[in-house]
Design brief:
alpha/beta; 8 helices; 37% helix; globular; protein methyltransferase activity
Length: 219
């Protein structure tokens, strides 16, 4: 078992500014751990990217899975405070991360076109109104508010996945049942020829969380 990254360096005051790891975070960790041998031995990644890294827990865990330190681990977040914490989390756990403050992947394309071997996204997925999504000035709310069907940020990211993934690349996406995951799978298949499976699902209180795994139909 791969240990969860040590987050003792993050204070309660820090969590006023950055999303605290919760059940959704740990479900994504479990999915990556389940695929650990596949990622190490078949994907053998050169470049990994996490969109919306928050504390950096997921990318740090991925770095521990890969182990040899040869993969570039890029993390993006719109919240500069989150990127500072992400950097500290990597250092605290002896994993080198490369945090970038940007919205989704603005500025990374076309340079990273079809270059990402492992892509992870735990998006803002909670069902809210569009007004809640765009009018909120609270940075923590922006980490979870997803707009109509919880899909407004997710739907902006889906076309970017096709541009980012390498031929051997895999994409791990966390959704809840209200996000209509089967519809997301159909969009990715019909529009981008990306195959998928539900890698994990779990109840967190009344919320059903799922990890979808996507890959190109070239293997």
């Amino acid at each position: 078992m791969i240990p969860t990254p040590d987050l003792d360096h993050i204070s309660s005051r820090d969590y006023e500014h950055v999303y605290e790891p919760a059940e959704d975070t740990f479900l994504l960790l479990d999915a990556l751990e389940k695929d650990a041998e596949f990622l190490r031995n078949e994907i053998k990644p050169c470049i990994c990217l996490e969109i919306g890294s928050g504390t950096g827990c997921v990318s740090t865990f991925l770095g521990k899975i890969l182990g040899d330190g040869t993969a570039l681990l890029i993390c993006t977040d719109i919240n500069p405070y989150a990127n500072a914490i992400t950097n500290k989390t990597g250092c605290h756990n002896s994993i080198q991360l490369e945090p970038i403050t940007t919205n989704l992947v603005n500025g990374l394309l076309p340079r990273l076109y079809h270059s990402i071997d492992i892509l992870c996204f735990n998006p803002p997925y909670v069902v809210t109104t569009s007004d809640d999504l765009y009018s909120s000035k609270n940075i923590i709310e922006k980490a979870w508010a997803g707009g109509i069907d919880g899909r407004e940020i997710i739907d902006k990211a889906l076309p970017l996945v096709n541009e980012l993934l390498s031929d051997k690349g895999v994409f791990y996406l966390l959704l809840i049942s209200e996000n209509k995951p089967n519809e997301v799978r159909e969009i990715m298949k019909n529009n981008y020829n990306l195959q998928s499976e539900i890698l994990f699902s779990r109840l967190a209180g009344r919320e059903k969380q799922l990890i979808l795994k996507f890959w190109r139909n070239t293997r």
